[in-house]
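Lecture notes, part 5. Sequence design as translation. It can be helpful to think of inverse folding as translation between two languages: the language of shapes and the language of residues. The source text, in C-alpha cells, appears below.
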C-alpha cells in the first residue's frame, strides 16, 4: 500500500468542524471557551503538529478529537462519519485512534509487567488472536528487541526512553490508524528525544499511520511534522506546511514563539502580559492585547489597527493550505516576515 503524501488530495482521516469546547464558570462567572471554533484536518499518513504555549487549548482540542471530551459545538468526523459518543461506538473508535501521553511513568501501572501493559488494550477489546505474538510484534515495532527480554520487566526497571517505547507499543498493538501524541518527548532526556521522534517517523513510513503531535516546542514540530497548526487562546491562528510556517511565519504570535528558539536570528520577542482568561476573550483579534506589531505602530501605519481591536479575523479552514488569522498579515502578504517581527 502506498502511503499518501501530505500534498496528496486524500480525504481527511480525521476532521474537526467548527469545534467548540466550553466549561461552565463557577458562581455566576462566564463560561471558559477552551476551544473556541477550530477546523482541522488530518489526512492519511500525515503528521500534524499542534503548537502553542501552555493554556492555549491544545490539549483540550486533542482530548475532544479522541472523544474524551464532548464538544459543546461543532463536530468531529472520522473516516467520513461524525463521531458517535455512545459507549460502544467510542470503544470501537479508540481502537482506531490511540493516545500517547507525555509522561510514560504516569501512563504505566508500576505493578504491571511490560507484557501486561501492552496486552491491556487487546484484553479490553476482546482480541481473539495470538496475544503473545501481537505483544511481541508491537514491542519489536517500538524498538524493544528482542521483545521477549522485556515481557517480565516492570516500569521501574526501564529507562525513560524504554518506558515511552512501551507506551507506544501499547498503542500500536491495536493496529490504529491515527496516533494522538501529547508532548511525547517532553519528559525525556535530549539524547533520547531524537530516537523517539525517529521512531514515530518510521512508524508513519512503514505502517501509514497518521499522527497529531501536541507540543509547545516548535523545534520538535520542525523535526517531525508535515504540517503545523499554531493555536492561541482556543483557536488556530496560523497553519500550513511546516517548512513554510516555520521559515516564513506571518502571524505575530508565531513569530514570537520562533524568536525564542536558540538558533533564531535576532533578539527574542518578549510578549507583554499573560494570555487572556478564556472566559474573557478580547474583542477583535484575540492576540491584539499582546501583539508586538500593534504595539509597535506597524498595524496603525498599515491602516488596520482599528480592525485588530474590533474585528475578529475568523476561523481558519482546516485544510492544508497556508493560512493566517491576522489583519496585518493579510494586508502585508508580500512583506518580509522578519520585518513584521521587529
Amino acid at each position: 500500500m502506498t502511503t499518501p503524501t501530505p500534498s496528496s488530495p486524500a480525504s481527511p482521516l480525521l476532521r474537526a468542524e467548527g469545534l467548540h469546547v466550553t466549561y461552565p464558570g463557577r458562581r455566576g462567572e462566564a463560561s471558559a471557551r477552551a476551544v473556541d471554533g477550530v477546523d482541522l484536518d488530518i489526512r492519511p499518513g500525515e503528521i500534524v503538529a499542534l503548537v502553542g504555549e501552555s493554556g492555549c487549548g491544545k490539549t483540550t482540542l486533542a482530548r475532544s478529537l479522541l472523544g474524551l471530551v464532548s464538544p459543546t459545538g461543532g463536530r468531529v468526523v472520522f473516516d467520513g462519519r461524525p463521531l458517535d459518543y455512545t459507549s460502544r461506538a467510542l470503544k470501537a473508535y479508540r481502537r482506531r485512534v490511540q493516545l500517547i501521553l507525555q509522561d510514560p511513568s504516569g501512563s504505566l501501572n508500576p505493578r504491571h509487567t511490560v507484557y501486561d501493559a501492552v496486552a491491556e488494550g487487546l484484553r479490553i477489546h476482546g482480541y481473539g488472536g495470538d496475544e503473545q505474538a501481537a505483544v511481541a510484534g508491537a514491542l519489536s515495532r517500538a524498538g524493544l528487541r528482542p521483545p521477549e527480554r522485556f515481557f517480565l520487566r516492570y516500569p521501574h526497571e526501564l529507562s525513560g526512553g524504554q518506558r515511552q517505547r512501551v507506551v507506544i507499543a501499547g498503542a500500536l498493538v491495536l493496529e490504529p490508524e491515527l496516533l494522538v501524541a501529547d508532548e511525547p518527548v517532553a519528559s525525556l532526556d535530549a539524547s533520547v528525544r531524537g530516537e523517539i521522534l525517529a521512531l514515530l517517523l518510521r512508524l508513519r513510513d512503514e505502517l501509514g499511520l497518521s499522527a497529531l503531535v501536541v507540543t509547545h516546542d516548535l523545534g520538535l514540530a520542525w523535526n517531525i511534522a508535515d504540517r503545523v497548526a499554531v493555536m492561541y487562546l482556543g483557536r488556530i491562528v496560523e497553519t500550513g506546511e511546516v517548512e513554510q510556517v516555520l521559515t516564513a511565519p506571518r502571524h505575530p504570535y508565531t513569530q514570537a514563539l520562533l524568536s525564542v528558539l536558540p538558533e533564531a536570528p535576532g533578539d527574542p520577542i518578549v510578549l507583554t502580559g499573560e494570555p487572556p482568561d478564556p472566559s474573557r476573550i478580547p474583542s477583535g483579534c484575540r492576540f491584539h492585547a499582546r501583539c508586538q506589531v500593534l504595539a509597535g505602530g506597524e498595524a496603525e501605519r498599515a491602516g488596520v489597527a482599528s480592525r485588530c481591536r474590533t474585528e475578529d479575523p475568523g476561523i481558519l479552514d482546516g485544510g492544508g493550505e497556508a493560512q493566517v488569522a491576522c489583519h496585518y498579515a493579510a494586508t502585508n502578504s508580500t512583506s518580509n516576515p522578519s520585518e513584521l517581527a521587529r
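The translated text above is only one of many valid answers, since several sequences can fold into similar shapes. The CA atoms of residues 284 and 307 lie 7 Å apart.
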